[in-house]
Amino acid sequence: MPTHVASTSTSTLLDTLGQAVLFREHAARRLALLLVGCALFSSGAAGLCNQVIWQRTLKVFLGGSETISSMIVVLVFMAGLGVGSIYMGRRAVTIKDPLRTFMVVEASLFVVNLAVCMVLRSDLGDSIFALQSLAMNLGIPLALLYAISAALVLIIPCLLMGATIPLAAEVCQRRLGLENPRVLGLLFFMNTFGSVAGAVLASGYMISHWGQTTSLEAAAGVNLLAATLLALMLLFLPRPLDSDGDHTRDTPAPSVRHRILQPSLEEVLALGLGFCSLGYEMYLFRLIALRHQPLPFTFASVLAGFLLFWSLGAALSASARVSLSSGLRVCALLACLSVPVFVFDSLTIIAGPCDILLFVISRFPYFLPCVLFGYLFSRVAAKAAHSWGRDVGRIYAWNTAGCCSGIVIMTCVGYEMPFFMMVLLIAFLLYALQEGIAGHCPKAALTRAIPRWAYPLCGGIATVVISLCVDMSGVITTMRMYYGRDGVIGLDNNGNMVWDGLWHSKLSVDNDHVGTNNWYLAVCPVLSHNATPITDVCVIGIATGVTASTLAKMDTVKRVDGYDITHTLEDVYQRYPEGTLHIVDNPKVNIIWQDARTGLSLNQDKKYDLIQTQPLYLKQAGSSLLNSIEFYTLVGQRLKPGGVFCLYSNGTAEQAFVIRQTASAVFEHHSSFHNGYLLILSNDPIDLTEAALAERFETADPLWDEIRSWPDTCNPEAVLELLDSPPLDWGDGRLVVTDDHPIVEYPAYIAARLRELGYAVELPVPQRLLTTSNDR
User: Given Cys at both, which of 119, 242, 277, 657 links 249, Cβ 3.0 to 4.6 Å?
Assistant: First the structure.
């Protein structure tokens, strides 16, 4: 064989072998990248499961407010992510094997989350309320105590979660040899898309079917799955790979250091995008709940929609070429378009996981700005990334700092503004970022005395000042709106009160409140009380003030403690004194702006003759807080001998049945009115016989005069017509509401469980004492 032929054959063979080795390396890289993506997906899913469940679990001890508990838990969550991200980003280049560290972090999350689950499962109620009592005596604000307590419980897992993104970026650059920073968008996509799955599963299935403790254990198991995937990856990539196939490179080129007080343009953009994106999410939480009712699945839909479209934007950043400046302008425009979308939107009841997905798809205009939030952040991160782990950690930390600021300011300030002013503020801030990019070049800075970004920033400040200083409650002609951190209250021209999109009750006009729901909520427990004279009364949820003021009419009543967390009611009481029966001027009524669980737990020496809860829809998010065995037990401990507890069952027949089962598991004696719409509960026998009622009707008292004047309660015989006879089925205690398992908020699940348990009884539908066409 000629020499040149042999040489050519040898060269061809070597090329073939080289290509085979290169193919194997590329295949290993692709498989490893897939495993990294799956690990990030699992980590994101576990993280959002934890966030959703932590919020529900800790709300009992965080003031009972959906808004405050959400703000504190999400704030601690995001702050932990930011601190963990910047710490791991700075350590990334010094870590010998980022893949092994990534695996250790996920395994640690499994252990730590199980430990947090054990802490939350423990009966810490007495200890926590004792700590709150001590804080109040020392003058420490409870909100500060809530934040510190949540941080102590959640900070370690949140720090570990924050370390995952920088580590994944470092793995891709150092172990997989990837060089294009646009790959980072795909990493953000996988992590956030996993968060979508976690949000939907936790809110739409896990809490209702498994309870909060089991759901947390399952979420910890997902972290273990992520650690297992990364362990498998170690088998495929035993040594670091460089882009040229060199196995010796340990660290990438160092990145430029930036001072905190002199942030780079990318850091400012990451901060601003974090503020605007989380501010927009808080805005959507309020806006969509007003149109589609504040149900558990409604909040899950907003969270899932925001994360889904954000993740799509992150994925698009790997290929799309929209400039940052154009993206910011379009994002501001799309955010403002959410207002007309809201105006023309129609009510949709979201009742399950499938409804969540259908809602997100059908109401996609609400979430279009989220696409650009994800796209813009990923572009900023890719632009700043030289040493991926370090720079991603730095940019991610700036972004989460903006997110934390957006959460706090939009909750404490934005929620006090009309919703259309909230989104206008966000639009101004986005334009300020856009002008900041346009004016970043040295020539622009030299030719302008006032920076271009200052004008839209001043517009945002003016928006806040106008919203807080000018009375804008009458902007909508058909309804006067009052905005506050804990809800939006609307009052139409007829005095109908709509609370967070749900009809609640009606203000009094010329004493037409007599015979309404709120009036019966005061009268029925009075009719049922057969012990000593009624002197101390507690009303949980004072709302229009009708119930509390009605009970205060009794001569024997010395004090009515009214608990409520919605400070927005103060504006209503000031503007409608007659409609609220002058509740703020009533010397007997003591309004306590605090959640009842905290108040009753802290005031252990206070006992009541009557305790009554104002209507809260059972389907509403958070209704289990006042309808669990734990809360009923607390109420029972605060009743005097012969005291009466009155609560309502405003929901489906199945929900009302579960409420009766839960109540009967705590209170031995019970009765009901109007097919269980109002429940009367006591630790002692309840005497509602004709003879007992006849004796009570002899009482000389302003309230009893009012009772005798109403046709349906004019005599004992009329009252007995309202009483459920024969007594309703109160169940056998097999399906009850607990803090860990808030099933009352999930009527579809309850109906299915009742069928599984073999309940064959015909369940009566609670009948309202007053109905209205405005009740949605």
Answer: 242
